[in-house]
Amino acid sequence: MHNQTTTEPNAEANNQAKIRSVILSALTDICGTAEVADNLQLDLFAHGLLDSFGLVELMLTIHEQLGLEIAPTEVERETWSTPEKIIGYLEGKAR
Amino acid sequence: MLLQQIEHWAEETPQHPAHRHREQSLTYAELNAYSDALAVWLRERVARDYHSDHNKHKRLPVVIYGHKESEMPVLFLASVKAGHPYIPIDTSVPPERLRKILETSQAAAVLSPQVLPAAVKRSGFLWQEQIHLGDLHSLAPLGTHRKPEWQIGPDDVWYIIFTSGSTGEPKGVQITRRALESFVTWVNRQYCPRRGEEVFLNQAPFSFDLSVMDLYMSLSNGGTLWSVDREQIANARELFRSLAEAHLSYWVSTPSFAEMCLLDPGFASALLPDLRYFLFCGEVLPNDVASRLLARFPQARVINLYGPTEGTVAVSGVDISAEMAENSEPLPVGEHSPGCRIYICNSDELDTNNQSHLETDNCNRLEAGNLSCLETNNGGRLETDSGSRLETNNEQRLETVSLLKPLPAGEKGEIVIVGPNVSIGYLNHPELTRQAFFAWREEGGTQRAYRTGDIGCQRDGRLFYLGRRDFQIKLHGYRIELGEIEEQLRKLPGVENAIVLPLERRGKTAALQAFVKLCADITVLSAAKPRETTEPRQTTEPRETTEPHGQNYSFDLGQHLRKQLSRVLPAYMLPQRYIFIRNIPLTANGKVDRRALLGGHYDPV
User: Fold this and answer.
1) Domain of life, per the record (chain B) (predicted)?
2) Is the residue at A3 inside a domain?
């Protein structure tokens, strides 16, 4: 029991770290700039770094590397407009 | 004739919706009555405005500026009925590009359901009217309209679509009534819409010639055109809601759009139970997209079509079977062809021929002994006597190539299209027209020919597309001349030189990247480029200052260039990635070494 209470937060922290790492790496590749990892509040759509097709690529990467299936109808563009929002959404989904 | 077919549906099913966009709907009766009334008004207005020189101006094009408003087909048909070719311009086009198109086309007017950008309004070289359905109704209360005498002959231009141009400016492809009707007749015969029953998806903007297929297939068969706009496309939930409501039977889009929809498990036959056809054109159809569509929509056929804008949307198509889609070979792009012929030719021979007729032109075009020519004009006259010329109503002359021999089946070469679907050339660009169009002598006469720049081959009676021989690319279905973007980049202050290349991800072109060499005097840019981000920043690590040559500096500079470019280029032509380099790498021959850039062999700033 004692072990379980200590491993669960660790597992969640590991999971969160993995999500963060995968998303920032994928966004750096798709958006073509490391600025996305540097500024987590950067509006990806407003800066022309992400469009509908880039979003599709990101969803495919999420499925391949995190095993999370995201349907386009599941997300509003506004809720995925910054790296921070994307990471937050996925952390919530993975819980 | 297309106009008569549409009129037939206005009489047969007057209350049937011809066009639907969100809550707006336009019936066939409204489409016909409003376009007739607007044509009468347009003709009178042009006659009044160009009173002293009416004949000269009566066939000037009319720009139709809008997006997916239900009025759009009314404005198209009114222009045609009044005898003016129309130029569809999407509202996503930046004002500067719109102004350039207006200048190049010498348009007589702009009709729009929307307010025109201020920059265009101020130009003052043409008149503009904002026309809503309400205006149209007051212009022509149903049942009281005047029917104009249609003024479009078979060889008159029906529409002009502007595409990206390698010289840095967009160019207008002119499509005649004959070419359009030949195309529509073929697709109707081939893909058999049931009369008065079908619903066609309109995904592409009207400024993209793919939309010509859904618009005129639908209107010629008494169907309903179901438009989805860019806001709906950007919001998958809203898009799927619209698709579920539509009861589509014909899906007309780029493969990229269908691929995006396929990511959602809800994109299946339960969403579109009435769907019978997927008609794809504009870019390569990946095998896995075809395969997944066939699995999810077992009741539908997947058709892969091929053709450049200069060939009137498409000149060939092929029904893709599950077996073909599962094969590792690229999918064929055609086996049927309308009145058109598709030849595979040696590009060097085409170049040589092009060069020789240009030289001939410099000496004396009319005395080119071994060249015979074709003449088309408003009356469709054909003259094939040796040594004469081909002249269109835009006064563009084409020379016959009598010596060219197509390559045998299986050999790779440049795709040449010959036949009635071929455009009469680029509007007000005779030199560009001569470089790409020529007359082709064959048994029974001479036909217009267009060298596509596409590389392909024919095997087992099927056409395969293998790429391009120049710097034109397709990105999500949009045709882009990389040279046009490079030209616009070089015009920006602080930019000495720039090369734009496609960025490949997952085996396909996903975006554009610009390699930029800055001027030695970088202060030019520093002065022009204040930091624009005003939001507070939360960073994972302490942020560096935006020092010249730093990573953040590059990002800001890229954003600055992107913003400058967005004033003259549409969003789909804006590079996503900007890489600043010290020198443009060159090959041993002194040409730009694009392979080196793509391979990461450059000296970054």
Assistant:
1) Bacteria
2) no
